[in-house]
Amino acid sequence: MEDCGRPAPTCFILARMIYAFGDFELDLDQAELRANGRQEALEPQVFALLAFLVEHRERLVSRDEIFENVWDGRIVSESALSSRIKSARQALGDDGQSQRFIRTVHGKGFRFVADVRVHGEGIRAGLATGGDAVSGGSLENAATGGRPSIAVLPFRVIGDAGPWATIADGLPHELINELARLRWLFVIARGSSFRLRQAEPDYCDVGRKLDVRYCLAGTVEVNGSQLLITTELVDARDATVVCSERYSGAVDDLHALRAEIRSTLLASLEIRIPLHEAADARLCVTENLDAWSAYHLGLQHIYRFNRTDNAAAAALFTRAIEQDRNFARAHAGLSFVHFQTAFLRQTNDIAGEIASARRFARQGLDLDPLDPFVNFTMGRSYWLEGDLDRALSWLERATTLSPNYAQGIYARAWTETMAGNAADGREHVDLAMRLSPLDPLHYAMLGTRGLTHILAGEFKEAVAWTERAARAPGAHVLIAMIAAVSQSLAGNETAAGNWAVNVRERSPRLNREDFFRSFPVKTPQTHERVAAALERMGF
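Predicted structure:
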């Protein structure tokens, strides 16, 4: 392993990221545009458009890119884009004639042309490399704690790739755009990371120059009609490989392979980086954990679904908020804690836990309405009341903000299934499992797949899926209850009885009402079948 001179982990409080130009400040973390310190009123979509143009100011941005990133690929009219551009210019005191900030390149797109200064409160200035201002340094030093940052490097071509060599630049560019949607991760712009093109990347050097914690690199090789792409996520502090992936397919299926790489790689990073962060945070002295480290340690506890770990998670999320009250995801973490307490019936004050889950989710939304995890927790708070319509609206918003957000897709699948839409539920839960096969909620995804079969009256298939779910690592007691129901519906009363014993040993007070509060099945026929099965088992 290469020695990059990695120091022992130290812990800092995260600063806010602010772009300054003219008399204006664009505060991404607070979602505010300020003129001489005074907040300017902007519609959320106009703010998102302005932020996208500023973050990609080193180049021309096409209309298609704007539609893809600001409108999430939805088909909208040119007049809608023109209206948002006009509103952004008006907020900046600009117009279509002077174009001091936003320049129109007719027939091609737009570019933000004003000089931009990047800074964060209490953090040193960004590092300049070859005349290109690199904004990563304004958020963190690569050797410190804080919000993770990543540089996606141009991939290396092995051998003669012929006309397919452009993949080595095109795919990393697409990944930069996709990763930029993950608001918990700071992504270095293409204009900086692509300057560090090397035959053999020196990850420690890249980490120092771009002031990033992680590098994502890869190779492209063409062998006849076959295309092989490898990727690796590297900790730039010591050049250790965090994870690597290998993708192969026919060159004629390039577009399908691109889609697979984008979706699976993004979902993998959602899991791998937080796990790596948490493992590293354990090297810190507990009393000195920064907000981000405390948050990630909390995540390690929250997915174990027991009272002790739930309490530990609550304490860590609370510590994160005490150190950074603007940390939206820490508020969402507390919402998750209270959701879990209510969902698993670990208290007599269910109403109070529901109210707390909703309150912390709302606080997270006030701080960062565009964070998928925050929207996810808000949606799940409505599960607890059986309000599936409102739950689904928030979960759809979470997956719109981050189309590869596996847990959000799973939660959406669960909600659709409870509402009686087995087909959509099955499609979405299969996608969630494909995106995140190592997800800490994988057992719940398996259980949801089983529930779609119960809804469809396919009890043999339901048994196969719910047995896998109940035996999966981390599965909580309600998953065992689903397994018992599916076995009973399939006519396997002995197996059903065994699972019923397992449920009573783990939670003697669970009953039929608890099951339907946790799983508010709306289809009358399914409700009756499940109720009869629970009654046969004595619940």
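Summary: The longest strand covers residues 240-250.
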